[in-house]
Write a structure and sequence with these properties.
alpha+beta, extended, 240 residues, two-stranded antiparallel ribbon
């Protein structure tokens, strides 16, 4: 049996002197606002978010596999859509997202911009999915950090962007036909706005728990024509 001896010291006696604690400023990451500013949205935010490590999307009917879709390898394997042999995203989408950031001083998170043919089919193999304007970078899904639960506020900011425009752009109407959302979309001559609630529109690009907004381009001001396309056109728009 071993006996131990207590070490006794007075309250003012120290063996080691504790260093003086100094407050340090937290590091600023690239995605955080700096100096009251947010990082500008560019076409780079719209690159396809496909990933080859995603599991296949297996379609089962009557207990049998009828189709299997694999995701693409991402934007390192293909470009954004091309116009005049240059990568292209419809400018109004970039302008609107930057307007939202300037107004709110908060970061816009682009969850889905351009989708190549393979990524679109992987997410939505239906016939309707093949006509998505994501295929030509004429549609974007996003939410705003810090205002995730206030999408209606963001939609009002989008509409306010047009307040000094001609009536056909300034006036928004509600779309009264059936869509894949329960909230009636908003539209003017140039854009179509959909609000996806928390349990709507979930896919591999939008796996977050927030409501999100989708903006589609309806009218191309530069060409003075409606924005339409075919799946064949979407194939021709890419550089590999």
């Amino acid at each position: 049996m071993y006996l131990s001896e207590y070490i006794v010291r007075m309250h003012h006696e120290y063996c080691l002197q504790a260093p003086v604690q100094e407050m340090q400023q937290a590091p600023v990451y690239p995605w955080q606002p700096q100096g009251g500013q947010v990082k500008a949205i560019t076409k780079e935010y719209f690159r396809c978010k496909g990933a080859s490590h995603n599991p296949p999307n297996i379609i089962v009917k009557d207990g049998k596999e009828v189709a299997r879709f694999y995701d693409c390898s991402g934007s390192d394997r293909h470009s954004l859509p091309l116009q005049d042999d240059k990568e292209f995203v419809y400018p109004i989408l970039i302008d609107l997202l930057n307007h939202i950031q300037k107004t709110t001083q908060k970061n816009v998170h682009v969850t889905s911009g351009h989708r190549c043919i393979a990524h679109q089919a992987f997410m939505d193999p239906s016939a309707k999915g093949s006509s998505s304007k994501h295929l030509i970078a004429a549609e974007v899904d996003f939410y705003v950090q810090g205002l995730e639960e206030q999408p209606l506020k963001i939609i009002q900011i989008i509409m306010d962007y047009y307040k000094d425009e001609a009536k056909e752009y300034k006036t928004f109407q509600r779309f009264d036909k059936e869509t894949d959302v329960t909230t009636a979309p908003w539209l003017n001559k140039e854009i179509f706005i959909k609000l996806y609630k928390k349990r709507e529109g979930r896919n591999f690009d939008n796996r977050h728990p927030y409501p999100y907004i989708s903006i589609q381009v309806r009218f191309d001001r530069q060409k003075n024509e409606r924005v339409t396309f075919s799946p064949d056109q979407a194939h021709r728009l890419l550089r590999k």
